[in-house]
From TrEMBL:
It comes from the Eukaryota. This is Helicase C-terminal domain-containing protein. It comes from Spongospora subterranea. The lineage of its organism: Eukaryota, Sar, Rhizaria, Endomyxa, Phytomyxea. CDD domains: SF2_C_RHA (cd18791). GO terms for cellular component: nucleolus.
Length: 189
């Protein structure tokens, strides 16, 4: 939505881990038909138990496909479902005063969608800092919140934070530490 409707500027998206990064990059590349050099669509995902989101992604994909099908069917019987919570997903945006903001028609400008996490090679990590081919291209970086404190990416104008993080939790009974996905604190936001 930011890519299609807001002025030029890079987008930085924070998610909880490598699996989430790979998933979001794959979905965005498919949606915006991004053809960056290294496509991660065939990378193996971490085990589902590594993320609280797990197989919920499949359900999200099915729900999104169903909503897209309804929108294109011209079926007006589901108006009640489209109102309410999901009403912000309509094709018309409004500014702070309630004035409609026009949405550009046609294809959106080119974008480069890149992952950023510690297990990437140094060459792939540096690609985030490389200049874009032209001024009409947009950089979209999908990263963990750990990168938030360790790197400044030039030309980032928009930041999207999921509000989740992986926290190390120690179980006193078993003596084992594990990473659990939880909501970030207000102080961290």
């Amino acid at each position: 939505r930011i890519h299609r409707r807001l002025p030029q500027g890079g987008i930085l998206v924070f998610v909880t881990g490598k699996q989430d990064i790979n998933y979001v990059v794959r979905v965005l590349r498919k949606r915006f038909n991004d053809k960056t050099e290294r496509d991660i669509t065939n990378l193996p995902l971490e085990n589902d138990h590594d993320s609280e989101w797990g197989s919920g992604y499949d359900q999200i994909d099915r729900d999104a496909d169903r909503m897209e099908d309804r929108r294109h069917d011209g079926d007006d019987d589901d108006d009640e479902e489209e109102e309410g919570v999901d009403s912000d997903m309509s094709d018309v945006d409004h500014d702070a005063d309630g004035v409609p903001i026009p949405v550009p028609d046609g294809p959106c400008r080119p974008c480069h969608i890149l992952p950023l996490h510690a297990l990437l090679s140094p060459e792939d990590q540096v690609r985030v800092l490389a200049p874009l081919p032209s001024d009409d291209h947009r950089l979209i970086v999908i990263s963990t919140n750990v990168a938030e404190t360790s790197l400044t990416i030039p030309n980032i104008k928009y930041v999207v934070d999921t509000g989740r993080e992986k926290v190390k939790v120690y179980d006193h009974k078993t003596g084992i530490s594990s990473l659990k996905v939880s909501w970030i604190s207000k102080a961290s936001a």
